[in-house]
Amino acid sequence: MPKPSAKTVVGLALALAFGGFVLWIQLAFLVSLGTLGVGSASFLASLTGTVDQITGGEYQGAEADFAKVEAAASRISSSSVGPHMVMLGGVPGVDSAIQNWQHLGAATADIAGSTGELLSLFGDLSGENGSRKIFNDGAIDVARLRELPPRVAAIDAGIKSSAQSLRAIQTTGPLAGALATVQRKALNEVAPVQEAINVLVDLAPQLPDALGANGVKRYLIAIGNQAEMRASGGAPLSLVLVEFDKGRISIPIKGQTSTQLFPPLNAKVKWWGPSMNPFFPVNPRDAPMVVTNTHPSLTFAGREMAGAWVGGDYPEVDGVMTMDLTAIAAVLNALGPIQSAAYGEVTGDQLGKILLIDAYQ
């Protein structure tokens, strides 16, 4: 058998080397693709769990789910890097898929970081992570409230960055189907978090002053009876004055509107209200407190209630809030039943029947 020439040997060596290189590229790509698939599925499921646990007030459960979020985000990020990805990124037609893959890695890392900040904030405020609760012994820690704005702003920036990275993914070309699915599901998970954070961005800077950091703040809470509806809700048959003084909460005045606060029975009071209210065309008003929320806009109705409250010789308030029995029942269901001397154990589900039916029999 003739001895192969040097050219043949070199050619075979080059062919083997090239074949090995191609095989390495293929195997490395398949490993990355598998890592992406496993990581994406775990990331989305764990992110949903984390958000649900935070919403439900379950810090320990959220912490456990978030550990899975971090691990999954790390897998997704690692799947988009490596020498094989660099080489594939230089191949026309494949380069866009690699770039999209890397966008996904950056987005999941941002989402994980922002979710971690949100979880940390939740733990600090609730005291579940071992720190002092922001609400303790009848008072809100105003100093800790002042720390909220920069932390909320950082979470907001992270969420916006992640959403931007997700939207930058081009869902066309190679891997379009898989990337589009992850993109859509991730954006759906991010949306409610971003909506909640947007509210906090506006609210957080106002909280210290609103809770009495710079002087006493008073708020009138009108509890509406849905059995006697007005345009802005149920008739305000119970009223509660809540005061905040440097975060400490007190309730100096409360009672039934008709007999306790405006006796002997829905006594008329005089007050000055906003103009252009067709239900009260002239000033000063001269009417009972219980009809103040006849205007369908709470902007008008709230100002009328605040005015009538002062007309009853009660202190001026900085704002008016309304609640109905549905809201109170939801709070009761969340916090647990209460004991009543007249009705025994009262749950949120029973509250409407007790107050709207039984109390009138």
Describe the SSE topology:
Blueprint: H1 6-55, H2 59-79, H3 83-88, H4 95-126, E1 135-136, E2 139-140, H5 142-146, H6 148-167, H7 176-203, H8 207-210, E3 217-230, E4 233-245, E5 248-256, H9 257-261, E6 268-271, E7 285-288, H10 298-311, E8 319-324, H11 325-335, E9 338-340, E10 344-346, H12 348-356
Parallel strand pairs: 3-8
Antiparallel strand pairs: 1-2, 3-4, 4-5, 6-7, 9-10
What would you say this structure looks like, in words?
The protein has 361 residues and is α+β, with helices and mostly antiparallel strands. It folds into two domains: 6-208; 217-360. 57% of the residues lie in helices and 17% in strands. The protein contains twelve helices and ten strands. It has helices at residues 6-55, 59-79, 83-88, 95-126, 142-146, 148-167, 176-203, 207-210, 257-261, 298-311, 325-335, 348-356, and strands at 135-136, 139-140, 217-230, 233-245, 248-256, 268-271, 285-288, 319-324, 338-340, 344-346. The chain has a four-stranded mixed β-sheet with strand order 5-4-3-8. A two-stranded antiparallel ribbon has the order 1-2. A two-stranded antiparallel sheet has the order 6-7. It is elongated.
In brief, what are we looking at here?
The chain has helices at 6-55, 59-79, 83-88, 95-126, 142-146, 148-167, 176-203, 207-210, 257-261, 298-311, 325-335, 348-356, and strands at residues 135-136, 139-140, 217-230, 233-245, 248-256, 268-271, 285-288, 319-324, 338-340, 344-346. The protein has 361 residues and is an alpha+beta fold. The chain folds into two domains: 6-208; 217-360.
